[in-house]
Amino acid sequence: MDLVKDKIYLDKKIGTESSQFLVEGDIIVPDIKPDMSSILQTHANIITDKIELLHDKLNFIGRLDLNLFYIAKDSDNPIFCINNSIAIDEFINIDGADSEMFTDVKVSINKIDYKMLNDRKINFRAVIDIVANVLQESEYEIVSAIKNIPSSQLLKENLTVNRLIENRSDRFIVKDELNIPSGKPNIREILQTDIDIVSRDIKSGNGKITVNGELLLKTLYKSDSSENIIEIVEHELPFNGVFDVPKAKEFMLADVKLFVQDKYIHIKPNEDGEDRVLDTEIFIGANIKINSQEDFEILSDAYCIDEKLEIIRETVSYSNIICRNKMQSPIKEIIQLDENCPDILQILKINATVNIDDSHIINDKAMVEGIIDIDILYIAKSDESPIYSYKTVLPYRQTLEVRGALPEMEMNIDTTIEHIGFNMLSNNEIDLRILLGFNAEVIKQQQSKIITDIKFSEIDKEILENMPSMVVYIVQNGDRLWDIAKRYNMSIDELKDVNEIEDDVLVGQKLLILKNVTV
Q: For residues 63 and 107, what is the distance between their CA atoms, to the nearest angstrom?
């Protein structure tokens, strides 16, 4: 007998490790800027530059970008900005990890504290969370068929697996010259530019991944007017990123997470020599992950009337994606300033950071809840505090549909701020609108037994001789016609003919089994 063998590839979970590390240091006010009176607003972002799997560990290389607004002492220009970047090079231990494996890493800021040591120095302490999942692609040679044995004596089943085809990082550049709208004064100093990635469209096929969308830029700057007005301008910048991924096909599921990796924005004069152009160069990082659902027809059991089969099986473990779902959810809230806050003259910008406190699965649904940290920077109707920052938190709770998900399964979920909108209702009330984005992935750790080899030998003649010439068998719960035929070493067709049946058997049904061997 000849065996027909095929190769299959399964992604096995090696392990999940979570860790924390501390990043701390001092921020020094540059010599060209005045002394600090107080810290007004802070913003921190962690950037991934490189992730490398090594033997039994993972190396994370990135940086912590800090942006800080402060109120200056004795200055006609009350608000100043400091940008700082701190390099990070950390290792976490992952038993069994190796350089040839895949990894999926999530890094986030758990907590960050600032302390003003004096009017020229600020100390910061940031606690960083890192969670890493490691997968190994394993190759197996399985028996898919046996030549010269009737197909009715081969029991087959379908095996569906999700295979990780590609998992890597890349980036592309978006460049443009952005003009300050008419009616806005010239630029004297750029304080900050926030960049949001919106309207993403991802397409996979023909060996390429294409990502289209828009960047929303919000630039806060000091004008060159005698009033030292602080202005904010918004620009929409379309982008198109193309990545060469030779294995990418149209039917595959492409997941591309985009983030702003670097930005260089400089003041440039226009044709009239006025500083009204933002020369913009933005590096967009992309974490690319492509999965392919593959269906196999594998041999699960077999028997032969003329020969004895020794079936060799191996238990394999693998990860399977049960469900993926993306959705957006709006949150609306009326923000009422505290009584001790100065009245609002103009809102400059609103920062929002979303945090997940709890996420779990209830059959076919994912429950997510947490808080959104809100920081509102505004020009105040106050001579004592002309620029003011108001902080508050908003709770949220969301239910996502994740078909096929069960509580014992694993879930990866990301929550992002997709859009922030607001209107001033009064001097101390703000109508705040936030669009949250949710991206959930449910994974089941599965095991299957696969046939890796079959050995053939002669049937023991003594066993055949001792078999009764006739047996009446009563069908038990869970019995299939195929199982009964195998047990009594006869063909399914013969069993059907003797008992004059066409379909499968019923529990309690009596079957006549006739000995049909030649000794």
A: 11
In terms of Cβ atoms closer than 10 Å to its own Cβ (0-12, 13-18, 19+), residue 49 is middle
Work out whether strand 344-362 and strand 57-72 pair parallel, antiparallel, or are unpaired.
unpaired
Is 455 buried (19+), middle (13-18) or exposed (0-12) by CB count in 10 A?
exposed
Give the model's pLDDT for residue 519: 41
Return d(Cα 63, Cα 128) in angstroms, integer: 11
CA-nearest of 203, 209, 414, 198 to 327 is: 414
CA distance 304 to 469: 19
What are the counts of helices (DSSP H) followed by strands (DSSP E) for the chain? Answer: 3, 20
Greater confidence (431 vs 503) lies with 431
Sign of CA dihedral 244, 248, 249, 253: negative
Per the structure block, which two tokens stand in for 347? 């809102």
pLDDT in tens, 346-372: 999 899 999 999 999 998 999 999 999
User: Per the structure block, which two tokens stand in for 128?
Assistant: 């960083």
The strand pairing partners of 413, in sequence order, are 440
For the beta carbon of residue 477, count every other beta carbon within 10 angstroms.
6
Report whether 141 contacts 6 (CB < 8 A): yes
Please name every residue paired with 97 in a beta bridge, in sequence order, or none if there are none.
Answer: none
Q: How many CB atoms lie within 10 A of CB 136?
A: 17
Query: How much is the pLDDT for 78?
Result: 79
For 289-345, what is each residue's pLDDT tens digit?
A: 999 988 888 999 999 988 889 999 999 999 899 999 999 999 999 999 999 999 999
Three-state SS for 423-467 is EECCCCEEEEEEEEEEEEEEEEEEEEEEEEEEEEEECCHHHHHHC
Q: What are phi and psi of 434, to 5 degrees?
A: -125, 135
pLDDT digits (tens, 9 = 90+) for 140-179: 999 999 998 998 999 999 988 888 999 989 999 999 999 9
> In Å, what is the CA distance from 1 to each residue of 75, 162, 300, 312, 455?
92, 33, 17, 16, 9
**Residue 285 and residue 273: Cα distance in Å, rounded?**
34
Q: In this structure, what are the phi and psi dihedrals at residue 394, rounded to the nearest 5 degrees?
A: -125, 130
* Tokens matching residue 68: 């800080």
The Cα–Cα gap between 428 and 424 comes to 8
Look at phi and psi of residue 148 and say left if phi exceeds 0, alpha if psi is from -120 to 50, else beta.
left
Confidence check: pLDDT of 97 > 80: yes
pLDDT at 434 over 50: yes
Under a CB-based contact definition with an 8 Å cutoff, are residues 283 and 173 in contact?
Answer: yes
Q: What pLDDT score was predicted for residue 516?
A: 66
For residues 274 and 17, what is the distance between their CA atoms, to the nearest angstrom? 54
